[in-house]
Amino acid sequence: MPTPSMEDYIEQIYLLIENKGYARVSDIAESLSVHPSSVTKMVQKLDKDNYLVYERYRGLSLTAKGQKVGKRLVYRHDLLEQFLKLIGVKDEHIYEDVEGIEHHLSWDAIDRIGDVVQFLDEDKTRLKRLKEIQEENNGEN
Ligand SMILES: [Mn+2]
Fold first, then answer.
1. 69-91 mean pLDDT
2. Residues flanking ion ligand 1, Cβ below 5 Å
3. How far apart are CA 39 and CA 44, in angstroms?
4. What pLDDT does 55 receive?
5. pTM for the complete prediction?
């Protein structure tokens, strides 16, 4: 199992490759706000653990295992954003909140949150009722 830090790297590398077609050490460092030397170190570890293949002058590509994990991590991040948005969390909190919790939930919890998203999404009266409750509770504070 990848550590939280490894997950952050795999997730960002997956996104960079998806969006730009490649992931350079400097791009990874920028998107994670870390020093390039930390990226090089982690990339070497991820290579050793078979998530990616790193060649100093050719760049880096995800293995099948790395792609599979990356895809799941991006799905998890997006689902949690969608969930927080649906339950009414303010936009300005969503990204940081997801970054804070995503590594600490079991896949069981992720799947159950997926159920709730579907539950709220498939019948708009449910969301409407949730909004009413929130307005009532906000009135109390
Ligand atoms: Mn994330």
1. 97
2. 77
3. 8
4. 83
5. 0.89
